[in-house]
Structures are given as C-alpha cells and as structure tokens.
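Record type: ASSEMBLY
Status: queued
Input:
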Amino acid sequence: MELERYAELFFTETREHLSAMNELILELESRPDNRQALDGLFRSVHTIKGMAATMGYTAMSGLAHEVENLLDQLRSGRRRADPGLVDVLLAGADALEMSVAHAAGERAEPCDSGPYLARLQQYLDGSAPEEAATVSAREVQPPAVPGLWARVRLPDDAPLKGARSFLVVRAAEQGGQLAECHPPVAAFQEPDFPGVFFLRFTPGIDRDHVRATLVDAGEGAQVDFLEVAEEAAVATPDSTPVDARPLRGRVSSIRVDISRLDALQDQIGELVVLRSWLRRAAREHPTGELLQLSARAYRLISALQDEILKARMVPVWQVFDRFPRLVRDAARTLEKEVELVVEGQEIGLDRSVLDEIVDPLVHLLRNAVDHGIEPPHEREASGKPRVGRILLAAARQGDSVVITVQDDGRGIIRARVVEKALQSGIIELAEAESLGVDDIIRLVLRTGFSTAERVTSLSGRGVGMDVLATRVRALAGNFEIHSEEGVGTRVTIRLPLTLAITRALLVRVAGEVYAIPGMMIGETLPLDASMLSGADGDEVAAIGQKPVRVLRLRKILQTPAKPEPPQPIAAVVDLGNSRVALIADEVVEEQEIVVKSFQATRGAPPFFSGATILADGRPALILDPANLASVAAS
Amino acid sequence: MGRTVLICDDALFMRTMIANILKGAGFEVVGEAETGSQAIEKYRELKPDLVTMDIVMPDMGGIDAVKAITKEFPEARVLMCSAMGQQALVMEAIQAGARDFVVKPFQPSRVLEAVQRALR
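Status: finished
Output:
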C-alpha cells in the first residue's frame, strides 16, 4: 500500500493532536483532577500511536506508547499530575513533535527518543514494562479427558492472541458441538498466553469443516485433531442474507489542500479583473444588454470572491493555542510568573496571513516575558501583582484584523535604549536629549538592536523587532508600539483579512501606473511647493503635526525624464512608527487589486512587492513603501 | 452493488485508510462516525452491512457502542479496530457481539480477511 497517499493527512492530524496535547497537559497542570482533560490527552496520544504505527513510524509509535503508559497510571489514580510529571509529559510531547518533524522531512536529524524514554522510565519507576512478554510457543498439554480434541496453535505473528483465541472458541461454539475448552477462556487474558489451546468436540463432527472454521477464525491457525472420530455431521454457520439499504452518509466538512484553495483564488482573482474590465466596457458602451450582463457578472463574481475568502479563513486559535505553552516555558526558564490571557480566539484570518504572522508573535511574546515582565520580587517591590500578565488579543475591525500583544511589565526603558544606541554609534550624544518617544521606538526597531544584557536562548540577539516590522509590511499591514516605563508595552498589529485581494491606490508616475497598498495610506493631498523644505535627498514636507520625509517616485524609480506636472500629489504612508510622503504625478483611482506575488529576480529593485492586472488588462507593479524608504535612505 | 459499511473512528486518518482499503475491495462507505454515540445514531439511520469500530473514542467508546448496537440489532456485524494492548477490551467487545477484530497497524489483507469473517 502506498502510504504516501496518507502522509499529508497523517501529518495534519498528528499535529492537531500534538497541539491539543500541549494544551491539555497545561490544563492538567493547573487542574490535576480534570478527568476530561486526562481522557482527551489519552485519546490524542493513543490516536497518534495508532496512526504512527500504521505509517510505519515505529519509533514515534513506541514513544507514544510510553507516554500512554504514563497517562494510564494517571487514569488509574496511581499517580497524580504533579509538576514533575507534567514536565515529563511535555518532554514526551516535544519528542513526539520532533519525531513528526523528522518524519515530515523538516528536520534532518532523527528524533533521539532515548533520553525521553529514559526520563519517562525513571518516572515510571517500579512499574513493570507492560509489553506482552515474548511469546514462546510452548506446548500446552491436552488434558487427560477422552474424546476428540483439536489443538489450535495461532500463528506466531498473530496480534492479541487471547482475543483471537476467544474468537476461535466462539466460531467453534457456533457449530453447537464444542464440549470443552482448555485452558478455560479466562486464561486467554494472561499476558503470557502463548496462543495454543485445545478444544474438545462432541462426536460426529465434520472434521474438515470444523478445521476450516477454526483455521479461518484463527487467522490461519494450525489445527490438529488428536483423536479420530468417524461420523460426520454438518455444522454450517448460516450466513443470513443481509438487508442492504445503502444510504449516502452526509459529510459536513472536508479537508482541502491549501494549494487547491490558492489555485481557486488565483482563478477568481482573474475573474475579479474581468469584472472590472467588463464594468468599464459597459460604462463606455452603455447598451442595455451589456449593462445587465455586467451588473449580473459583478454580483456573481463578488459572491464568489466572498466565498473563497471565507473558505480560506481559519480561526486564529489554530496558531494561538501553542502560545500558552510557549509563555509557560519561557517564564519557567526565566523564573518569572506570567499569566497569558488570550482573547478573540475565534477570529478568522486568511491561512497564509496567519502563517506569516506566527514568528513575529512568538518573538513578541518571548520579548514580553524576557524584557517586559519583571521578576516576581521586583514586581512586588514596585507594588505590582506578583504574577505578570500578557494579553494576546485578536479582533476584527472592518476589513482588517487587529492583533494586540500587551504586557504589564517595565516597558521600554528610554535610558537603556539611548545608552545602547550611543554605544553602537547609531546616535550622537547631542541628539540623545531631543529624542522623542517615537524616536526611541524607531531605534528599537533597527536591525540588530538589542538592549538585552545577556543573550539568552529566548531573546537578546537583536533579531526580532525588525523582523516584525518587515513581516507586517510584507503583509501590507501596519503596526504600532506604545510603551510606558514601569507600566508596560503594547504592540498593535493590523493585518488585512486576506493577502490576495486588497484595496490599493493607483498612481501615475511618468506615464506608468503603480499601486500603493491601501491599508498603509494615511492621506493623499496635492503637494504644494510651500510645504517643502530641506535639501534635495533630505527633503521634508509639512504635513500634519510633524514634517514627513519626502520620497519622489520619479527619482527612485528612475523614470525617463518627462516634464513634471505643476502640482504632483503626495500619498502619506504609515510605516508603523514613521511616515513618508510618496510623490507621484497624479492619482488614477482607488481600486481593489488582485495581488500576484512574484519572485523578484536577483538584482531587481526591492521596492516592488508584487504585480497586479488593472481593469484595462494592463499590468502594474505594486510598490513596497517600506523598502522604498530604506532604498531612498541609503 | 457493493456491501455497505459504516466506519467509526475518531481519527480522520484512520477512517480514510479503512475507507480506502474497503473501497478497494468493492465496499461502499455509506457513513462515518467519530464517537460512540454517533456510531449508534448512524447505525440506526444507515443499517449498514458492516461496521468498523474503534475502541477509544471521545464521548462514548467503541465497546459501549457495540453493546448498544448489538442489543438493538442482534444481526449487526461489527468489526473492532484495536491497538496493541487492548486485549481485555477486545474480548469484552466480542462478548458483546463484535464479529471479529483487526489490530493497528493495519495490513489491508488482514483487514479484508477480518471483514470477510465478520460478514459470514
């Protein structure tokens, strides 16, 4: 049987169970008497064991078996879920996870389950190994009772020999001529039951038939008659005709490979472009039929678009549910006490957006535990509750999802950031005094910047905050950091519900149309020369309360020299903690575009995040404002 | 017309695998259940020729489901799907009227043989 067919399903389902395991183990830790959690945990491990064995992942299956043994002791009340045992269980879950990763080809080195097994075994001290003793097919002597005996010997590789023997006895009974069984059926359950037993029949059986029945029920058991009887009788286990009434089962949900959804979405994306095209044509040649067709197509395609978006949505808990474990482990390692509160678990987000945001969230949470939350004594000294609190919340706001990570820790400490920035020469002493809150946060977001006093396995390597910035912008979202010393830090991330279709501002630059992701745009306004100040390349425009850096698209895109329009437009783009004004010739329109990500070839300018097809069928490039800003700066 | 079968297992992976093995042998999978109580409901609704029954399932386990089904439908043909180490449970199921059993990891040939026996 080609097991690869099942591999995908196996991995998906096993990971779901692992995720459930982690959650249930933590639940057990806080409520050791939660029988439901224990039962759920047992089922998950048991299911993994069965599936792994079937896939031929012997080590994984063996590991699951060990964890199951431990859980069995919990279920029977022989042990309690004390913290030590919870650690062993978590270690078991980790080992299983590594084992899965290896099997999935994501991890080169095979899972070494040895240490975990040793740890488990150490915990299981005294308990006898529960594996059935190796069965030696030792002979059982037939009892000294005269009559016709059949000796039944199950094949050596027959699983559950006791149960199988029981079935053989039942099959023999059906003939109505079984007189006696030796050893008695009760003995079949003994762990060392060798799968050999004797059946005495009443005289007059059809031996061939009985033999056939026993061999069949015994999965090819070896059957020998030890005494001979002459008469024949027919004992036919009747097979009653079965009333077959086939009815279709109803299936309420199915699993679909995400790549299928991607493909479907691409096609629908093409339809969306056609829709705009058709609409435009109908406006230009407004005949009754064309208008009707266009309106109808518009509705249908919009509905289709809605459907595919919904189909791609997954609730955020699919990712969030691994975080309690993560925070717990981080807190334990750092000897802090932290409570993670998760809100909005049911909020849906496009699968691919969700996948992209996991790493930044992991980083934010670790940061919150490591740098944010103070050690318990320090918290108590400053009049805070001993246990730190981290809030992870998701909420839907219009066409976007807002994810908040908030802690009640010490906040970003200005002095430390300034000191570090001075040390690494990012800022001058003279600047230090005048730095505002936003400037401080911008420093924190710089690549390679870290105020951590030591590098721990959790954080402090200076990678992270800039990853958040890059990733969120790549998703055409934005984020904001708010921090107050001594009170805590809040990071708010705003993401589009879906990646594929987004509103964009189309602008013209030297005759070409470019798209700017709509979510990032704060405002658009005509640029007046009086607003500008500063030298070429260092220009700022007075827009709003603070001067905004000016990026002239003609210059950055190196368009052929054409006379610049008398009054270009400025699109003010929000880059998280700073704003820039993109200067274009004119605004074309605001429109929904279908994003086609492209693989930029090496050497291609980095400030395009993708491409789209406009309503008139022409392609347009999508600008990545953050990269534009950094290209312009360098 | 193939024989009809109801597959009861809480793991989709297992259900899929069993379904494929049985479909390959000409069976028609008319229903699937993820819990013991679902199995009973579906049995009443579908009256399949054969039921494959996992032992460990949430809500109500396979043993109780077999007991309930065979009590109501003595002619029901139930094939237990067991893991190693569940001997006592399998014997209990047989006592309750299960016709045969297979042990994970499944080998298609063994599953089909057990199915044939259960249907006899």
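Annotation: The longest strand of chain B covers residues 28-33.
Annotation: Residues 12-24 of chain B form the longest helix (13 residues).
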